[in-house]
């Protein structure tokens, strides 16, 4: 972190170029976003960075259970965050916790069903892990509607 680096250098009688540091950090963030390969959806990497920044990491509970409730924290449709999705929509759902294993290290991500009130059924074809911290359920809404904030 900048503060610790500055303190360590100051203790040795050296200074630090804050403007240069800020420029280098901005470039590193830009390069990290550009290098991210994507999740198989049309969403740009910026969407996943924004969701991770807003919501934090998804809690994986699949080692102790194969069914769990979670709260929908984000929905991505056609590469854009939306508040809700309905039957027929292809979506990427992010929940606060999930038992779905996300593709990592070559192992295929889980497939299955996400269900909820009002007959909601989302057929999950794959679960991806963009940025190494979000579990993204990739699938299609078969019935009902799903909205950010819903319990599924």
Which keywords apply here?
152 residues, alpha+beta, Elongation Factor Tu (Ef-tu), domain 3, 6-stranded antiparallel β-sheet, two-stranded parallel ribbon, 3 helices, 10 strands, elongated
Account of the 3D structure:
This protein is α+β, with helices and mostly antiparallel strands. It folds into two domains: 2-35; 45-147, Elongation Factor Tu (Ef-tu), domain 3 (Beta Barrel), CATH 2.40.30. The chain is built from three helices and ten strands, in the order αααββββββββββ. The strands form three sheets. Strands 3-2-5-9-8-7 form a six-stranded antiparallel β-sheet, covered by helices on one side. The model is unreliable at 35-42 (pLDDT under 50).
Q: Which parts are unreliable, with pLDDT below 50 for 5 consecutive residues or more?
A: 35-42
Number of helices: 3
Q: What count of structural domains?
A: 2
Rg from alpha-carbon coordinates = 19 Å
Query: Beta-strand percentage?
Result: 25-35%
- In quaternary terms, these chains amount to single chain
Shape: elongated
Counted beta strands: 10
How would you classify the helix and strand content by structural class? Answer: alpha+beta
The CATH level-2 architecture of the largest domain is identified as: Beta Barrel
């Amino acid at each position: 972190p900048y503060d610790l680096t500055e303190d360590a250098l100051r203790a040795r009688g050296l200074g630090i170029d804050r403007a240069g540091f800020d420029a280098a950090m901005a470039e590193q963030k830009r390069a990290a976003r550009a290098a991210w390969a994507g999740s198989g959806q049309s969403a740009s990497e910026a969407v996943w960075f924004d969701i991770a920044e807003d919501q934090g990491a998804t809690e994986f509970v699949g080692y102790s259970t194969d069914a769990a409730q979670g709260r929908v924290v984000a929905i991505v449709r056609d590469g854009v965050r939306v508040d809700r999705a309905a039957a027929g929509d292809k979506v990427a759902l992010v929940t606060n916790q999930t038992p779905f294993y996300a593709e990592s290290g070559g192992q295929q991500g889980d497939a299955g069903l996400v269900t909820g009130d009002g007959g909601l059924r989302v057929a999950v074809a794959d679960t991806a892990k963009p940025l190494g911290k979000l579990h993204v359920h990739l699938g299609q809404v078969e019935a009902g509607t799903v909205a950010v904030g819903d319990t599924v």
